[in-house]
Design brief:
It is a single chain. The chain is an alpha/beta fold. It is built from eleven helices and six strands. Strands 1, 2, 3, 4, 5 and 6 form a six-stranded mixed β-sheet that branches. β4, α8 and β5 form a beta-alpha-beta unit. It is globular. The chain starts with a helix and ends in a 5-residue tail after the last strand.
Length: about 270
Amino acid sequence: MANTSEYNESLRQRGDLTIWVSDDVARKWSSPRRKTRGGQERYTDLAIEICLTLRVVFRLPLRQTQGFMRSIVKLMGLDLVVPDYSTLSRRSKGLKIAENRRTSDEPITLIVDSTGLKMHGGYDWCTEKHGGKKRRKSWRKLHIALDPDTGEIVGSELTTEHVGDETTLPDLLANIDAEVSQFLADGAYDGQSVVDCLVDKFGPEIEIIVPPPKNAVHGANAQRNKHIDAIAEHGRMKWQAKAGYNQRSQIEAQIGRWKQVIGDGLQARGF
C-alpha cells in the first residue's frame, strides 16, 4: 500500500477518546425549582439522557455509569452533581428523549426498513440451576426511516414482533416534517395501503420505488405497472440500478452501525 502510514494512523484514531461538555449542557444539567407543590426534581431529562446514553455505548451497569460520569466531571473540573444509580434507574422509565433533527429546505429521499431487537430477561441461569422450562424469547421490532443524503434517522417506531411493516408506516411517517420526493423500501411495503398513506402524507408527486413480487400483475397504480414492465424487459438487477433502488443498502449499513453501538438487544424490560 502506498498510504500505509496514513492508514495506520486512521486505525489508531479509532481508539481516540475525546470527551467534552458544552456550556449549554452544563447550564441545563440541574432542574429549575418548581413553584408548585410536590417533590423537586434535581436533574433535568437531558442530564439523565446523557448518563444513560454513555451507559449504552460503553456497556456499563448503572453503578459503573455513575462512577464513569463522576470521573468525567472530576477530570474536567465541572461543578456538577452526578445522578446516583437508583435515580438513573427510576428516571429511565418514561424518559422523554430530546430530539434534535435538522430540517431540510429541499425534498429528501426516504428509505424505510425494520430490524429485530431481542428482549433480555436474564441469562436463564436460574432455570438451569432450579430446573423448569425455559421462557420463550420475546422480540421488539424497530422501524427506521433514513435520509440517505445526510445519513440521519428522521423517524423511528418501536413495536412488538407481531406488527407488520405496512401497518406501522403511518405512525412512522407521522413526525416527519420534511418534504419527501422519493420513497424506497423492500417488498414488504408492496401494497395499495402503502401508496395511499404516502400520497396522503406527501402528495401525489412522490416517487415510490418498491420491488413488486415475481408474480406481480398490473393494477391501478401506474408507477408499479412501470416497474413490472421494466423488470420484465430488462431484468430485476438492471431495474434496481436504473430506478435507484440500490440506495436501500445504506439503511442496512446504518442499522448495522447502530447495532454495533446499542447491541442487538434492549436493556429495558417494560415496553
